[in-house]
Amino acid sequence: MAGKASPTNSTTRQRKTSDSNGLHKSQSEAEFERAKKTLEMEREERAQLVLWKHPLQVLQYFVYETLFLGKALGIRLWRRKKTVVLCVFVMLIAYALYSLDGPHQTAIAAVQKRLLWYAYWVGLGILSSVGLGTGLHTFLLYLGPHIASVTMAAYECQSVDFPEPPYPNDVVCPDKEGEGHVTMWTIMSKVRMEAIMWGAGTAIGELPPYFMARAARLSGASLEDDDFEEIEELIHEKQSHPEDMGVMEKAKLYVHNLVQRIPNPLFDLAGITCGHFLIPFWTFFGATLIGKAIIKMHIQKLFVIFLFSVHHVEKVIQLMGLVPWVGKSMQTPFRDWLAKQKSKLHHKPGTGAATSSGNILSWIFEKVVLVMVAYFLLSILNSMAQSYHKRLCRAKHALQKAGLANLTKVVNKSNRD
Questions:
Q1: Top mean-pLDDT range of 5-19, 69-83, 147-161
Q2: Which of 187, 272, 297, 317 is least crowded, fewest Cβ atoms below 10 Å from its Cβ?
Q3: Which residues, 6 or more positions from 238, have their beta carbon under 8 angstroms from its beta carbon?
Q4: What is the pTM of this model?
Q5: Spatial distance between the Cα atoms of 389 and 93, rounded to a whole number of angstroms
C-alpha cells in the first residue's frame, strides 16, 4: 500500500543512518586523537623550554610574558579607576600621618615594626607555596631555623623573655635569671604568631591556581595545560564512579582540610582541584587556612621544638661518634657550632657578638640558601617562558578553529547555491 513503507526501504534507511553515524563517530575520534597528539607534542616542546637548553628563546619569551602581564594589569587597573583612586587617596593620608611629627609616632613605630615582622613571614609563606612545587621552601630556610634558635635559647636561658631589641632579629638571654622551668608549650607560644603568619602565607599562595582552575571550568576551557594533567584522571574517575566522588564532594571541607594539614604531594594540586570542581571560595580558603596556618603549623612547630631541645641535640651529636671512620670528625664541627650558639646567647647587646666566622656549618647553610634562591628565580624564568609558549599554542589553535569555521561556512554556502 502507498501509506505503508516497505520493510526493505526501512531497513535500507536504518543501515544508511547507522553507516553515517559510524562515519561521523570515526571522524570525531580521529580528530580527537590528532588533537591529543598535538597537545602531547606541545607539552614535550614546552618541557624542553628551559634556560640551559634554549637560553635566547627563554629570555625572549620571558620578556614577552612580562610585557603581556604588565599590560593586562594596567587594563584591569584602568577598568577599576575609582577603586584605584580611593586606594591612592588612603595611602596618601596614611603617608602624611606617618611623616608628621607628634606623639602618635611612638604608636606608629610599634605598629610598623609588628606589621613588617608579620608581613615578612606572610611573604615567605607565599614564596613557599607558589610555583606548583618549585617554590622557595622557606620553612626549612627561615622559619625552621628561627624556631630552632628560640628553642635552644629558651633552654639555655631558662626563659623566653628575650630583650627587645635585639629580639626578634637577634636572640639574647635576658639579664634577669630565668625561672628554670621552660616547657614546649611556652616555646610554642613564643613563636606562634610567626608560624601562623607563615602558614597564612602558604594558604594565600594556593589562591592563584584555584582561581585559574575555576575560571577555566566556568569558561568551558579544555584542560590542556600541564597543571591539569592530574585533574583529567579525577574527571575520569568521577565519570566511572560518580557515587564515590559524590561522597567526596559532600565531605569536601573535611577532606580538603585533611589534605592541607598532612604533608603530602596533594598540596600543589589542592587549589587546582578545588577550583575545577567549583568548591566555594570560603570553603576552600577557610579549610586551607585552618589546615595550614593552625593544624599543620602546630605539628611542624612541635617537631622542630622536640628535635632541637638541648638534650636531643647533644644526644644526636653523641650518636654521631658511633658512625664508623668519620664519626669523630663529624662531631667536631657540630660541637663547635653548638658551643658558639650558646656563647652568642649570653653576650650583651652593643658589646659585640661572638663571631661565627670560620664555622663550616654556617658557610654551608649560606651556600644552600643561595643555591635554593637561585633555583627559585630560575624556575620563575622558565615558568614564565613556558606560559608564553602556552599562549602562542592557544592562539594558533584559535586561528585554526576560526579558519576551519570559515571554510565550513563557504562550503555550506556553495552547496546551497
A1: 69-83
A2: 317
A3: 245
A4: 0.64
A5: 43
